[in-house]
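User: We ran a pulldown and think these components assemble together. Before we commit to crystallization trials, I'd like a predicted model of the whole complex to look at. Sequences follow.
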Amino acid sequence: MLKEILDAALLSPEYCADLLSVPRERFADWTAGKPMPKFILPEMASILGISERDLTSKVRSGYVAEGVLAPAVWYKLRNEKLSGTDREMVGIIRKLGFYMGQLDKVRGLGLPQYLMLFAEVRKRVDAAASPVVQGQLAAEAFRAMSGLSKGQRGIGEVLRPHLRASGLLLIESPLPESSIEGCSFKVDVRGDARACLFANSYKSTWFRRNAVLAHELCHAIFDVDTEQVSIDYLEEDNSSLSEQRAQAFAQDLLVPRSVLIHYTNQFGVDWSALSPSILATLIAEIHIEPRMLLNAALGTGLITADQAKANKEIDCADALKAVSTHALSTPEFLAQTGNESAKWVAEKRTAKVGARRLLLPVGYVDQVLDAVRSEEISVGKAAEMLMTDEQTFIDRFGDLVFQAT
Amino acid sequence: MSPVPGFPENPRWIVGDTDVCLQLSVLDKINIFHALAIDYGVRVVIPEAVENEIENKFQGAKFRGHSAPFRKAIKSGIIGIVNQSWIRTAYGPDDGGIFEEINELGEDLYTMVHRGEAYAHASAIVLKVPCLTNDRSAVNTLRRAGRVLPINILRSFDILVFGFQAGIISIKECEEMRATLTAAGEGLPESFARCSFEAGLVNFFSRLLDSDKSLCGAANPEDILDKRLWITKTNIARSAGPS
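Assistant: Here's a predicted model for the assembly, 648 residues in total across the polymer chains.
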C-alpha cells in the first residue's frame, strides 16, 4: 500500500527514500510491492503518520478515490496552495519529531508538560462564547498558568524557550517558495503525538513570527487534535471560528491590556500623537509587530479607529533598528555585534535532506550535543539526529564535543 | 564441537557493521571474509539495516565505485544477510522468535546509536556471536547505559591482522591498506595511527587470531574490550592442499 499512500499524499518516492536514508532503487522496490524490511517500519510509520500495519497491508481491490488513502496530516497538505517543497519540509519536520522522541527516551523524559496545560486551557474556555472571547480567555489562562504574566513585560524573548521546555516542537525556518506563513500539526513520538509549531522565517521579522507562533499555538491547543494539521497562508484573510480565535489568542497572549497599560504609563505614551521613535520603543519592548500593537491599542480604547489607521502609516523601521537587535537583518546584526556567532550557529544547525534544508531549533541542537558529551548517545547517532554525516558532525562540533569528553 | 580439544568452538557467525564492511570493500579485501567462511567456518553476516546503510553509502561520492567486492560477497553468500529467511535456514522453523527479538532490541538501541550500529549490536547480542565494528563511541554509549554488549567486539584491524597472521594477506598489503585508510581520513587504532603496519603491529592487541599460528601483535590487553577470540581452521583439506 506504500505506493498508494505516497501518491495520495503527493510525496515523491525519491524524496521519501532520502528522508529515510535508503537507496532510491531500494525504495522503488518497496513501492512496487516488495516486502519492506522490519527495521524501517517504525521510522517510516512515524514520518508518514500511519500505522505499521496499514503500511504493510495490501490495498483492497476496487475503486479508490484520489487522495483518500493519504494519512490525515498529508491529506490536508494536498491543498493546491501548497507546493512539493512545503510537503517535503513537513516530512523533514516529522523526521525531526521522530528523533526528538528518541532523544527524550534516552534522556528519560516523560510526557511533555504542555499536554496538561493545553487541557486546562481548554477547560477554562466556554465553547459557546464568541471566537474572540474564546481566544482572549485562552490567552489569559495560558499566560497565568505558564507564568508568562509575571512582570507585565513583552514575552517574545521568553516565549520560544518556554514553549520548547514544555515539550512543544518549535521550528522557524525559511521556505522561500512557499505560501505557508505558519502551521501546526502533530508528529509521532514513541507512539505518542507531539504538537509542532512551524513559522516560515523567509522575509519575515522576528516580531511577526512571535505573532505567527502564538497564533499556531492556539491552533495546537484547540484544533490540531481533531484536524491533525492547521495551515495559515501568507496574505490570507480567514474569518472562520478557529482563525478568529487564534488571532485573538495571539494578540492577548503577546500584548494583553495590562502590558499595554504598563508601557503606556512607563513611557508616558500619547497615543494620539505617536512618533516613530515612541512606536519603535513600544514594539521593541512588547516584542510585536506594529499592526498588532495598534490593533491592541484600538481594542483597549487607547486610540480610535481613525488614529489606528493613521498610525499604521508611520514608518519606524530605522528607529526600531536603533533600539532592537531583533529588527536587524543577519548582515546588519553581524556588522553591529562584530562577531560571527550568529552566522556560525546558523551554518552549524542546517540539516539537509535531498535538496531541502531545514534550520534546526537551537535548543534541539544543544540537547543533542549535551547527550553526546555525556555519552548518552554515540557520535554517529548525534550526526544522524542532526541529519548530517559523521564527518560533517565532527567538523562542525568536534571542538565542542570532544573537549568535554 | 571444536576441532582442537580444549579450545572453544569457532563462532558460527560474526555480525558485521557498516564501516568495517565498507572499508574492506574499498580495500578489496573481502577475501578475508571468504577465508573465514570457507577455512574457519565463520561467516560474516550483516543485518538488513547495515546492508541498506552500506548500499546507501555507495550512492554517495566517497564510496561510489567501490561496491563491486561487497555486492559480489553478498551474491556469493560469503556475507549473509540477517533476515527472517536466513534465521529460518540457520535455526529451523522453530526459531523461538529470534528475528523479532533482534528487531525489538535493534529498535531500542536505535535511540542511542546509529541505525546500522543498533541492529548490528542487536544481532550479535541475540545470536550470541562477536560483532565487527569500529564505532567505539557506540560501544561506550551502550556500556554507559548498562547494556549487554556482544561477547567480542572486533575491529577492521583485527580482521587485517588476522588475515596477515593466517597468511591470507601479506604485510605489504597490510601496509598499503593502512596507508589507504589513513589517506581516506578513516579512524585508525592508536597503534597504527603514526607508524607503519609492521611497526605498529607489536603494540596492537589483536582480538582475533588463529590458534594454530604463532602469536601476532601485543601479548597483553590494553583496553577493556581487548578480549581475544581464538579460532581454528575447520577445513583441514583446503589448508593442506594447494592454495
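The CA atoms of residues 102 and 126 of chain B lie 6 Å apart. That may be worth checking against your pulldown data before setting up trials.

User: Thanks, that helps.
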